[in-house]
Amino acid sequence: MPLNRILFIILFLTSLYSYSQNIESDRKIYKTRRIDNPPKIDGLPDEKIWQNVAEADNFVMLEPGDGDPIPASHKTIVKILYDDEAIYVAAIMRENDPEKTMRQFTQRDNLNQSEFFLMDINTYDDGENQTRFIVTTAGTQADARMTGDNEDFAYNVVWESAVSNDENGWYLEMKIPYSALRFPEKPAQLWGVQFAREITHLNATYVWNYVDKSVGQFSQYTGLLNGITNIDPPVRLSLYPFTSLAVDQFDGNTDFNFNAGMDLKYGINDSFTLDMTLIPDFGQTAFDKVELNLGPFEQVFGENRAFFTEGTELFNKGDLFYSRRVGSTPIGFNDAQTEALENEEILENPDKAELINALKVSGRTDRGLGIGFFNAITNKQEAIFRDTITGNTRRKTTESFANYNILVLDQRFNKNSSITLINTNVTRDGHFRDGNVTGFLFDIYNKQNSFNFEGQAKMSNVNLPGQNKTGFASFLSVERTKGNIRYSLANEFANETYDINDLGINFINNYNNFSWNASYQIFEPKGSYNTYRIGLYGQHLRRYKPDVPVNTGMGGEFFAMTRDRFAFGGSMDINSEFRDYFEPRADDTYILYKPFGSMSAFVSTDYRKTFAYDVRVYFEEYYKSSRSDFSLSIEPRYRFSDKFNLIYEFEYSYQNDRPSYVDQVNDQIIFGVRDQKSIENSLNGSYNFNTKQGLNLSFRNFWSTASFAENSYSQLLEQGSLNSLDYNVTDANNPDANFNIWNLDLSYRWQFAPGSEAILLYRNAIFNEDKLSYLGFNDSLDNLFAQPARHNISLRVVYFIDYNKVKNLFRG
C-alpha cells in the first residue's frame, strides 16, 4: 500500500506540474568570436587581440542586496574568445582603493578571505550540473562541479589562469581547454554562463545575470554564451600515474612500503566520463576523528579518499551510498578477535578490506538523462591463528571477495525537476551476506516554482545464510519555496526489515515519522541586518510495528547576520518522553526517557578581520530527573599574514546521570547511570609560500571518560522502566572507560606542474583505552604518552599526462 500510494502521487504530480519560471526572457546574452592565435595567459589583458571584443558588464548585486547596480568605482568587464582548443576569458575588475583588496595565499580550492572572480559554464544549458571556475586575487585556482546549489570542490580539471594588479584594480586571464568540459557534438554551441565578483572588503557579491534569491536556485539564472561554432570535442584522456614511498615505525618495528599505480579519466563520448583507479593508494588520506563510542550505532566518518568524493553527485541520490563501506572493516573482524581457541594467539586479523580497484562512469545526455555506474572490488581477508604449543596455524575468512555496484538513471527536466532510479548491490562471493537496494525518487517543482514536491520509495533485500530479508522505506514532502514566508510538511516511513547497510548506512528502521517547519526570512538588508531568519519546527515520531508513539517535540530557531558580518543565532525546543528502542540492544525492547528541553546558541565574528572567533553552547535538561547534557565549543582563528593562518578549536562536553546500557546477562538487560566527559583540542594551520607550495599542519587530541556510579545498576523492565539490581562489577565486565587519542599530520605540498604534485607527509599517532575513568586529563595524557607512538613518513608524487599534449608531442 505505501508503494502504490507513492507511485500514484508521482504520476499525479508529474502530470500536473512542470517548470516554466519566466526567467528565459530576462537572460543576458554574450556573443563570442573565434580567433586564430591565442592570447598569452599572463594576467595582463592588454594585448591587441582583446581590443574590439564584446564586453559583459553591468553587474548587479547578489549579496547582501538584491539587484543594485555595481558602482562605477568597481566596474567589472568580462571578455571571451575561443579557438579550436579552448575558450579564453579576460576580466577587468576596477577598484578605487586597491590597498583594501583582500589577497590571501592559499592552495587549490581554498578561498579563505581572498576576493575572487567566478565563472560558471553549463554546456548543456539545463540549469543543473555546471562547472565552476574561480580565481582569487592571489592567483589561487578553485574548480567545482555544481549540482543545484551544491559545490563539489573534490572535482578537479586542468586549466590555466594568471592575475595581475595595479593602482586601478586587478586583472585576470583564463584558458579553459575543451578537455576540461563536456559538451554536445553539434555545429553551434549554446551554453549557459554566469560571472560573479566577490568584493570581500565591501562584503558584497555581484553577478552578471540577475539572480532572484527568493525563487529557485542560483544555477537556474545563467545567461547565454553563443557564437561558438564548429568545434570538436577532443579526446578526453588524462592519466595520473603516481608513486609513493613510506616508512612506518611502531613499537620497535620498522616497515618500508613502496607503491605505484595510476588513476585514469577517459571521455567515452561527449557526455560520459570513465574514472578509474588502478592499484589504489590511500596512505596519505586524512585521519578519522575517532571518538569514544558507547552508543548502539557505529560511528560515521567523512570520506577522505579523493576518488570517492569527486564527481559522485549522481551516486549520492537517495542517500544509499556510504562510500566508507568500500574497504571498511571486514564483517568477521570482531568475531575473529574473540574466537581464538585455548593456547591460540592471533597472528593477523586485518581491520580493513583491501581495495583492488574501482571505477565510475557518469555523465548526462543533451536530453537531461544522467547515467552513473560505480564498481569497486575488495579482496578476500583472513584472520590467522597460531597454536602456541604445536606451532600449527589455521585461517578463518573474515571478509569474502566482494563486488560493490551502483547504477543510477536520473532524468532532469524543466531545469529544476528530476525523476531518479537507483540500484546498489553488494555481492560477497556467497559468504556472510549479500545486499541489494532499489530506490525510485522524484523532485518536482510547480509551474510558478513556488512549491517543491519530493518523494522516495526504497526497497532493500538482504540475503543471509538461510534467510532472505526484504524491507521498504519511503519519504514524502511538500515545501513552499518562494517568498519570505516558507513552510513544509514531511513523512518518513520504514518497516522493521529495511536494511541498506551493505553499501549505505541507516541506524534505525521500523518508524513512521511526521515533521513540519515554517519560517520567515529576508533576502536583502533591513535595518542593521544583512539577513535574518526566524523558524518554527515540530515532529511526531512513531513506531511502525507496534503503532505506538515514540516522541513529540517542537521548537524555534533564529539566525541573523549584521552588516558587519557578525552572525548569531540559536534554538530552543521541548520534547515529550522518549521511547528509545535501540539503547537496550534487543528487539522490541525500549527504555523510557523523561521529557526534556534543550537550548543552543552561537556567535561568529567577521572572518575578514585578523582575529575572529566562533563560540557555540548547548544545554539539555530532563524534567523530573537529574540527567543533563552540556557542550561548549570555542574556535578562535588568527591570520598572521596573507601567507600564515592558524585555527584552534576547544570543545568540552559533559553528560550527567544518563541511564545507559551495560550488559545482557541471560534474559536480563542491565543498565547503569553514566557520567561522560570529553575534551577535544585541535589545531589547523597553513603557511603558503605561494599558491603552488605550502605547509599544512593538522592536530587533534580527543580525551573522553565514562564512569558508572556505584550501586546504580538496574534491570530494564517491559514498559521501559528500571528496577534496582545488585550487579557484581569485575575487571572483566567493568563498563567504565578512559579513551585518549592523538593524531598529528604535517605536510609539504608542491604543485610542480599543472595537475601534478608532490606531497611529503609526516604522521604521528598515539592511542590508549583502559578502564581508568577516575583519571584526570593530565594523568590520562601521561598514560597516553607511555604508549608506543606510530611514526610515519611518506612521499607521494602524482604526474598529470594529457593525451592530447602527448599526441601532439609525438607528432612533432
From TrEMBL:
<dbReference type="GO" id="GO:0004553">
    <property type="term" value="F:hydrolase activity, hydrolyzing O-glycosyl compounds"/>
</dbReference>
<dbReference type="Pfam" id="PF06452">
    <property type="entry name" value="CBM9_1"/>
</dbReference>
<feature type="domain" description="Carbohydrate-binding">
    <location>
        <begin position="41"/>
        <end position="195"/>
    </location>
</feature>
<dbReference type="Pfam" id="PF19313">
    <property type="entry name" value="DUF5916"/>
</dbReference>
<dbReference type="GO" id="GO:0016052">
    <property type="term" value="P:carbohydrate catabolic process"/>
</dbReference>
<protein>
    <submittedName>
        <fullName>Uncharacterized protein</fullName>
    </submittedName>
</protein>
<feature type="domain" description="DUF5916">
    <location>
        <begin position="233"/>
        <end position="810"/>
    </location>
</feature>
<dbReference type="GO" id="GO:0030246">
    <property type="term" value="F:carbohydrate binding"/>
</dbReference>
<dbReference type="InterPro" id="IPR045670">
    <property type="entry name" value="DUF5916"/>
</dbReference>
<dbReference type="InterPro" id="IPR010502">
    <property type="entry name" value="Carb-bd_dom_fam9"/>
</dbReference>
